[in-house]
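User: Could you check the structure of this?
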Amino acid sequence: MKYLFCIGLCILAAQTINAQRHFVEDGRLRIIRTGIIGEMGSDGDEGEGSVSKKNAIKLNLSSLAYQTIALQYERALAPKISVAIQGRYMLNQVIPGTSQVSDFSSDTINLFKDFKISSWAITPEFRFYVRNVMKGFYIAPYARIRNIDMSLPINYVDDNNKTQTITTKGSFLTFGGGVMIGSHFHIGKSISLDWFILGGHSTLTTIDISSKTTQALSVNDQQEIRDYLATTEKPLSSFIRNYKYEVSSNELRIKGNMNGIGFRGAGLNLGIRF
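Assistant: Sure, the predicted structure tokens are below.
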């Protein structure tokens, strides 16, 4: 029983605007809005410091390979500044690679064949473009809130030849902030590609892991688990703060928080400007 309850520790260790007026004069479209006065030819080429389409909605194509849907909205504010916010959701799925472990004969490996994970994240950011807003190279300070949920059900046969289940669930809520560089390309009059090149952020993660069993543990079994977890306090305290654990007849619960570093980038986003 002790090693099954400590699966929670394995999961722990494995663990990121303005109003405008348009009018046509002498075959040229003039765009006038507060803070930005630009001119665009009838062929659709934007002049220096101008923007004809102040909004963009983008789909992250790279995330689709991981069954993750990520949409971003961007809005131009000034000749070289915009704001954006991205929402992403990863469907509940088996962790890539673990669906094949059942092909092995090791019972320890087979324990993880039903290890599932889902997540969501919200990322607001400011963008500072080198030349023109929503076009070309940019630097983007951003914040991020992200939550990851994990689940690991395990069926086993106890000493009385009765099938029992241990269900381990983990929640990892992360807050972070950092900077990313990227480049926004225009393809035609309304289509664009936004390339997230590379970014990094510091994080603070709150951890909550619970293992529940259908079989009640004896007082001696509970104490054995407490004694074992007591030996993990010192090594884990070097990177997990406020590390706490609770043991009852049917549940082990582990809580804490830790600092870390996250990365963002290598994302290709297809967008529509309007």
